[in-house]
Structures
1.
Amino acid sequence: MKDLIEYIAKSLVDSPNDVHIRQIEGEQSVILELRVAPDDMGKVIGKQGRVAKAMRTLLKIAAAREGRRVILEIA
Amino acid sequence: MESLEVSAKTVNEAIQQALATLGKNREEVDISILSEGSRGILGIGSEDARILVSVRAPAEEQAETGKAAPVARDVASVAKEVLEKLMASLRIQGRVNVITSSASPASDGSDITLDIEGGDLGVLIGRRGENLSSLQFILNLIVSKQLHKRTRVTVDVSGYRVRRQEMLKGLALRMAERVQTTRQPIALEAMPAYERRIIHIALSQHPGATTQSIGEGEDRKVVIVPRK
């Protein structure tokens, strides 16, 4: 799941080296905290949050296959 | 000589698509316009522009510059690569087939469709095709970024879009008939934009009924109303 978001985020931003993802494990859920360079925030959120929404949708597919819940936070 | 027929909304768009598909510059091809196309209203009743693109023999140009042209990566192969990468990250197995040109029936104006075939792919479609839309959206963003130009690649799962399109057309015609006889409007369930478009187009020439969209965002739906 982390690799999915990492691949997408690094592919979309101008500064892939500034993409950092922290995975915080909970009991049944996992929180992925995505950090990108300030100038790249718009790229991972998108107009009206379209990119963020699409990433969360895909993440849900990956999570369901592992039987877990995932929350994506863009910090 | 390599040549390609392309259709798109405008002549310019068709040229861009053709160049992208062939991986050539504007200077490396000859373009003949087969049809200028027309806009229509709100994408309804529009006719696509069609062009024929032929690659010129790469004669003196390369000798002149003295160096080989950089290997142009075409949209289809880049898109296939990205899709396979995404599928691997999603732990979803399947084979990706590239369908190019206007021959792909599911294409909504774009000329490249990636059709995923394999076992357990229902999960890729999701409720109302939501997962498939997200996958297509992200894929196009990544491919556009890599190639430095806007791309519109369609992603399909075992012909789902084609079947869905036929289903929607049939539904539209049946409902229009009912509207025509009862003179009562019928609202269809909420649908994404490209599905509403299929309904609008299917009924644009209908004698007894016409269409409108109401509602906002996710809840936007088509209403079929009797024609006055």
2.
Amino acid sequence: MTKLLFVKLFRDVQTIWGRIVMMIVAISLSLIVFSAMLYARVIFMSEMTSDYSSTNPASARITINPEVAPDHAEAILTAAKAESGIIDATMRSVLTVQIQGKDGEQTPLQLFTAAPGDPMRIANFKLEQGSWPPSKGGVLLERSALEYLNLKVGDSVTVTGFDGKLAQLNVTGVVHDQSLAPAYTGLQGYGYISTDSLPYLGKQPVLNQLIFTVADQAGQTEPSHDRDVIVRTALSLAGKLKGIPGIKIEEIAVPLPYQHPHQPIANMLLTALLAFGGLSLLLSAILIAAMFNGLLTQQIPQIGILKAIGAGSNRILQLYSIMVLLVAAAATALAILPGIVLGRALAQLVGGALNMDVTNFSVPLWTYAFVITLGIALPLLMSLAPLMQASRRTVREALDERGVESQSATANRFYAWLGRLRSMDRGFLMAFRNVFRRRARFLLSVGLLATAGAIFISGLNTMAGLQAIPKTLTDEQLWDVEVRLRAPASASELTNIVGQVPDAIRVETWNTASTGIQYPGEMNVTRTYPDQGHGSMSVTAIPLATSMFNSPPILDGRWLHADDVDAIVLPQSIRKTLPDVKVGDHIQLPIEGQLTNWLVVGIVKELAAAACPCVTQTGFDQATHHSDQANLVRIVTDRHDLQTRIAVGQAATQMLTDAQISVQVARPIDTLVGSIEGHSALLVVLILLIALAIGIVGMIGLGSTMSTNVIERTREFGVMSAIGASASTVRRLVVLEGVFIATISCVVAAIPALVLTVAIGAGLGNLFFYAPVPFQVSVPAIVIWVVVIVLGATLATLAPAYQASRLTVREALSYI
Amino acid sequence: MNVSHLTQKETKSQHNETIIDLHQVTKTYEGPAGAFTALKGIDLQVRPGEFIAVIGRSGSGKTTLLNLLAGIDRLTSGDITMAEWRGRNVGLVFQFFQLLPTLTVAENVQLPMDFAKNIPTAKRQSRTLELLDRVGISDQADKLPAMLSGGQQQRAAIARALANDPPILLADEPTGNLDSMTSTSVLKLFAELSADGRTIIMVTHEHDAQSFTARQVTLVDGLVTSDAQRS
């Protein structure tokens, strides 16, 4: 490169600085989005693991029966600490009471209970206010629950105790437990009490869970990463505990070690965002190709001159490659800091949404290197084809450049036919023909807008799909209120009692039971987390003649038949724990302490709050040796609004309590729906923001393309003016071309948008639900995009069109 | 078909011999409407120092002939023997000047020297000013082409064409975009350069231009119909 060529490059950039700036902004924006997603993912996934580990979660929990007082747990703890591989052990409980709201609504409060002298080494929390243990009758609330329940330290909460009587708990402090999901996602509060407070709630000060940490080998102090090791140790200990007189083992829970309960959702969220970030980068890549194609087209006559005075193709390639490099470097430099800032903010946002504090924002150097390499290499790569093409033009071709490519005979015949139509406006025809005058530019412009449109629409389609998931629940579950009992009761008695509740028009009794997949050699071992929700599985017995349940869509096999006794239908999410399960397999489920055998007859699709695994009521009764028993009452109410549902739930609870039947919780179906919506809310918002960024990049590309279109045809507009075209005619022509391109791009985007929607829905859905997200087409998204693009095309072309129409004929004709 | 090149030394040494030799040169273009033959077996010999006008109507093939000589285009068949083109031994002057708009007049003139590297770096700037002075626009050296008149731009283009001291100048309608007075002054400049010993081939359709040239070659429909020395 000679010094003069650098001078030419610099001055060329100066003359087109507006478009250069647009290009830099577009590339930078896409790179910021992508890098932010990448940094957020790297930061958060690392923090999630370390934050979760900092709570020293229990490797396993053994639930025993009966419950024991802390000072009588010596034998159990001794057995635990003597077991090879166990690092530490203690006794705990997890209980649930109902907070009584002012308007009568009930909110579950999950209480993590420990002995007052528990050193809180295992499954600990960060104390933010107050002290451990709280005073008698006091509770430390998890900070997300404090916010969710709208409480503060010093407040009192009224709860229904275990004896059915109302009791007061005083909020004496705040903790942060990073092993728990935020309260709003589970629609319940979390509190921490000592056994000293249990009598205030109508319960003996007893505990029923032995929790412990397990190392790979005896003598080691770091908890194991190997679930098999933990399961073997837990089973061995459980065997020994059975030897203690009076002790029965209810459940052995071994969740996946070092994996936060919300790790899958965090993974899905951040993977989805990274995928969209990648798509925005793809879009900017096409934008670069389109903009450089336009830029180089304008430079063609000058390329001809340079070659005519002795420059070779390589020198031309070098010259414009440096221009690309400068633009790429500037864009990358601009994107570095905002990407880091946004990435950190996003990591904190995700952390906040998942109840985690992100404090360490360091990322490995490879991420910075990757982003920088991408920022520099992608524009160079994408502009390589137009650069090579431009540099290889012969002098004659370059100097003879008139801005129109030759058309095929078919195209010429088509235009000739159009021209013969009497009603055809010549300006309209000219605008239509001009759209196709440069095939490469047309394809790139349409490709750019169509890609942007496909990404935008598919993003909002995916959002609509996520928002449709709660509806899959209400399509399946046709009840208004469900009342869960603490223990099974007579089904006929329950029906009689609840049937008298005002506004309850239909009542059914059901059975559900906690269970877990029985792996060979893993008796009664589940993967349930301490919150009793994540990782848990319940089997549901479907009543023979239910009107409150529609069977979910069948993926494989069949639904239950009325005469089925040992048939079971599994949800597709079972593949998380049993990847190879298929129809015809036999599985074992521990139910109420007994091992039961089932034949898999079907696999169904349930995306939200899966009811299945499902068996028939007959099969359940036979397996558990019960009859006329139920632990769940479902009610259809007269009116289906939330107030009615809450009122009916309260009335049913009161009537059952009066009949000495203990109620665990009564909840409207709105609670379930709200929980599902809470899980996807953040993803929905973030997809919207990315879609917005993509829209902006698309608009920049369109503006640049249209302004290039106009500038290179300045002489042509001069000729038109010389033969009588008014300024408004010229403007109209230019605007029409922009609208044509925009309209064609909308049509072209249709199929890719649908394909992308299916792909993203399948990718996200399979990652989290083991089934695709419902396919939804967001009509508002399509309308918004079409309107924005056509309007945007009009606006983007108005400025250059106005400029073109303002030139005098002499100025236009003398333009080179 | 064959295009062979002479070195600059060989070119300058062949004072009385042919500096450009065309033998049965044919150029055919393929287009949507079919093949079009712009030159049909042209034979032409040019001696060093000649100032030749190639005249003909539109479509006669005169610009095609010039493009082939300049190396801008490739012939379909035949032979051309001449000095190596493009910047080193052949200078090109176009009808529409074709100056680079973002470089000053002086920078436009100096650029071919940077490409060819014939002129030592230390001498390029002074040579540029000499050339601009030779064509009478040294006071416009630091201006951008858009600030010059048509005649001044064409003079700058001529100075650029002379940058590497080429023995051959090819000019395609150099006065086509100029008024008559400016045209005359440009043609006089060409005549002076020819008197200095340069070989100049100028495509033109203006009869006034022919009065400055020693030889006129007339093309009609791709064929040489007349090749006359002016007495």
